[in-house]
Amino acid sequence: MSKNETPRDPNEVLDEYEETLDSVLAEVESPDEATEDDDISLGLPGLSLGRRDFMKAGVAAGAMGSVAGCSALTGGGDGGAANQTTESGSSVSHTVEPGEHDEYYGFWSGGHSGELRVIGIPSMRELTRIPVFNTDCATGYGFTDDTKELLEEGGGYSWGDNHHPNLSETDGDYDGEYLYVNDKANGRIARVNLTYFETDAITDVPNMQAIHGCCVLSPDTKYVLGNGEFRAPLPNDGTDVKNPDNYTSLFVAVDPESMETQWQVKVDGNLDIVDTGKEGRWAISSAYNSEEATDIQGMTRDDRDNVKAFDIPAIEQAVENGNYEEVNGIPVVDGTQSSSLNQGDRPIVKYIPTPKSPHCVEVGPNGDYAFVAGKLSPTVTMIDLDALADSSDPEEVVAGRPRVGLGPLHTTFDGNGHAYTSLFIDSQAVKWDIEAAVEADEGSEDPIIEKQDVHYNPGHIQALEAMTTDPDGQWLVSLNKLSKDRFLPVGPIMPDNDQLIHIGQGEASMELVADHPAYPEPHDCVFAHKDKIDAKKVYDKSDYEETYITEEDSGVERTGDNSVHVKMTTKRSEYGLPDFTVQAGDEVRLSTTNIEGVQDIIHGVAIPEHDINYAVAPQDTREVTFTADDPGVYWIYCTYFCSALHLEMRSRMIVGPAEG
Amino acid sequence: MSKNETPRDPNEVLDEYEETLDSVLAEVESPDEATEDDDISLGLPGLSLGRRDFMKAGVAAGAMGSVAGCSALTGGGDGGAANQTTESGSSVSHTVEPGEHDEYYGFWSGGHSGELRVIGIPSMRELTRIPVFNTDCATGYGFTDDTKELLEEGGGYSWGDNHHPNLSETDGDYDGEYLYVNDKANGRIARVNLTYFETDAITDVPNMQAIHGCCVLSPDTKYVLGNGEFRAPLPNDGTDVKNPDNYTSLFVAVDPESMETQWQVKVDGNLDIVDTGKEGRWAISSAYNSEEATDIQGMTRDDRDNVKAFDIPAIEQAVENGNYEEVNGIPVVDGTQSSSLNQGDRPIVKYIPTPKSPHCVEVGPNGDYAFVAGKLSPTVTMIDLDALADSSDPEEVVAGRPRVGLGPLHTTFDGNGHAYTSLFIDSQAVKWDIEAAVEADEGSEDPIIEKQDVHYNPGHIQALEAMTTDPDGQWLVSLNKLSKDRFLPVGPIMPDNDQLIHIGQGEASMELVADHPAYPEPHDCVFAHKDKIDAKKVYDKSDYEETYITEEDSGVERTGDNSVHVKMTTKRSEYGLPDFTVQAGDEVRLSTTNIEGVQDIIHGVAIPEHDINYAVAPQDTREVTFTADDPGVYWIYCTYFCSALHLEMRSRMIVGPAEG
């Protein structure tokens, strides 16, 4: 197809293409699942190929030819370097024997489950969950007074869509202090304390509809940065609702200690993913919808979208100079293309046209390049961060643009010169040579080293410590959005599939080692060597100096006509109070301290028919306030099996009739 | 110690014992973790043994000698048959290669997480979670109108403590239709539909404080049976709250189809776990607190507690004869020891004194015996179910009582004549010969075949299909309450540890194969061969005949001055409406149908700043009703990554100012 032909609607092409793939796949792998509505032939009579053959035979080329204006897409895996892994009997083991520890912590964002998951690498075992934007009755997150308040002050929502977990850095390496993660749904950023593995702050960022991209500013976590994805009126208060020309997207900087919003930058188009250079100057955001449309056809019309390069010191200077508008208390700097702040020698935001609706940006280990995956272009665009200081002209800042395959979304690194890009449409991980891509012509497939099938439709892809200046190689995880037939059927809502791939130090061929089903939706992950995390096993009593309760403190104090304060300890087999009495209608403040000093001896405080349960770990103190509405006897019991007399560990709450 | 010596308070002894173990363990395994408060010597100067040596050396014998009146407890593992497994390098693999399926479904109750977990065996991978008593923002359980209503009608709580999952049976085998599970906290029973793997009913059982034991009546699921654990006034309405003599525990039968409560039986003492014989007559409940005390010292005073054998046909006859009191609409039959219904030839409940605060009862595969674990006695009491028809005299119905070790809690079976009992205090699984136990003297250790260390403090223990008439052997899972040092540290709230043990067909030695961390609290599990479950991958459109929405239906209908009904389809990349407008204050009923026919193409409906997210699986229809309070633009987006244009899949909800 020549450049002058009218391109087909890419949305239409993609729909057709993916539906065809799905039905071919369904027919081949589960013949009885293909529905009558599926057009499995795509107008190609007699087609009876499997999904891989289908890709390799280049059948897709015609259908996809118009996407991103590329004339000769042949799908992935047709090069001689393609690695056709035998699925069974991998030669590398990821087994961690009983009693042995994993070598790496993996922190998985849980997507719209609202939680984080801590997964051991290489075993892929889930070590724990950390509730963040969700509520969690196992630990009492969202049930105790402190966590209720945290969620209330963080916007009052009971869910979130956490996408991008980021570890705090000192001198460019993980310092093990905090993890920051965004809520795409409600425009929030949360912080998780890695000493106690619990959420300790949630910031509901003003003015922003949906924070999608999220990262820390390397090398010293000066800011937590976030991309507001959805364009909306600013402020979004009901004015101008039907005038999309006046909608805007924002980029935000949040202080990592106070968790307060510092400033925002408004830009043209939608913002997507963000990463920073290693020297504290550049934050690079991928983007789509430079068309500023409100429907899918409009959003995908043009062949280029503007990647944004935020010049952090220049933005700080603009804020210092008072060059901003204050909206809902936040300084908002104008970073649109027409802004005066973008006309001088040092624009605050550089716009770099990049094909096409590019989805992700990751900055490589040595900070040379930002890798921007094309999504609707089969290429990865490499932006030279040094050149960026002088120019935003694509001719000068684009260092390479290899053709990697269909639907490139994310890129990761082994630290030995290789990049690995996930291909959503091809369902592959493609390994390629970074310097060869710089040398090669734009759109060349020469830098490709090998391709590994994944199952199916990968989003993020992460290798060990790939986001640091010194990646560790060895293992790569492909976070695949679909699992289809890979696991025992569990009803219509199927798990995602996190696949573990061995990559060695980059010299080895990729080898698929394990499939791991994942509850929706493990969006992204980040890995830290076990030595970089220093988790405490027992709480520090001094954190609770004022509220810490001793056995002597256990008792009931009437604090008002209709309020009581109940204090009691927990230890193996016994609450500090075998019973206590309140009157119906009382507001009961129940304070509990676990006075045990031994690790892993946790106690629960469950109150039947009062919708209360929470955990109290050793030396921890937690409180809950509730109203005792109905007269009766309610046995408070321990939900953590703590001793042979665990069942007998109870306190009897007697609610007498209301007085008077 | 002779029988006539005054026994020490067992609670005191157990406390001292366990704390000592913990601190010894802490010192040996993590020297810096032992706190100053720990008395690591137990008055034994120079003690510097590991936990296993400590047990084997018999040091505990003195300290534990009074427990359950046993004179010569030596702890486990000192017999010649003890199997000292080398932890690393197990010879049996549980690996399931990429793309291969597990052979068994494991259904794990999630304890106070409120959810069920589906785990593949032997891989131990979590295939999915099924929210039951909790809310779940990943799928929208508790967010959509139908699931909100389900939880509201089920008591209105946002958590539960699910303990015992049970598969529905036909002719004594799993029929793959339903799973039933109890909520210990709020006295409820839920049903999970195994066609779609979702909760479809929750019954808030009247009159009951806490349903602990739960099972179905074999062989044809005539009832779901539950044990009300906590003694409370009946009705628990504020009368008699301070008169524990009038407190009572109830046993309940729920209809498995209508899920309505059929009848209850009140008994003496607390009820614990329940299982049924294979012929539909007997339900056997373990029990504690025959003392009917309200504190731990009182509850553990006596050396015997009464196991209850419920004669189901006899109870049905009593109900039919009108021999009941109606409380809150439920027929309550008097099954206390003094009841007239227990004085005749066919008592409705037989009381069998058993040592000591026995925790669990499991009926063996051929239905001959109920195995009652002693908890505070080191024995398992075998009750002969045939003999039970004629007598409840322990001399006549107790077929055997092997001494298995300290803290026996649960027993499982391999179908080849062996029982496996979990030892909470010894942290072991003990394998013993069932017929040898019948032959041996009471309290004999001769039937013991081997002991396997587990890590640490096991509760339930389950072998494959052990609760059917034809157990499959091969694998056994020990659900250990503590993990301590077994995994990378994740803060003070540590995971439980589910350990996979290979048992072969019973001829092999037990071999510990894998440790799997589990989020609190996997209480119990049940396994079904994959061929017994028939999960659908796409919903049946006819289930939603009235509400199913086609693309032509998509639109907005004003249904009142302040209410609108929005209908829209979902398919890859597009909602049926690119935008819609409502006015501030409108109650919005949003109905969505996923019109895709292909498996695993799920769409999400997330509404920022409105606390709404839910999944719509292929051919499913879900609705949510909310109030659009604040004017503004809100982009509804898809939370399931469904296509290369997933990010562009959005609908724009415009909330205009309130009219008038």
TrEMBL record, chains A, B:
Give positions of region: Disordered: 77-96
Enzyme group, top EC level?
oxidoreductase
Q: In which pathway does it act?
A: Nitrogen metabolism; nitrate reduction (denitrification); dinitrogen from nitrate: step 4/4
Q: Looking at the keywords, is Transferase present?
A: no
Q: Mind telling me which Pfam families this protein's record contains?
A: COX2, nos_propeller, nos_propeller_2
| UniProt cofactor(s) | Ca(2+); Cu cation
Name a single GO cellular component.
periplasmic space
- Xref: NCBIfam families: nitrous_NosZ_RR
PANTHER family, alphabetized: CYTOCHROME C OXIDASE SUBUNIT II (PTHR42838), NITROUS-OXIDE REDUCTASE (PTHR42838:SF2)
The protein, known as: Nitrous-oxide reductase
Gene encoding the protein: nosZ
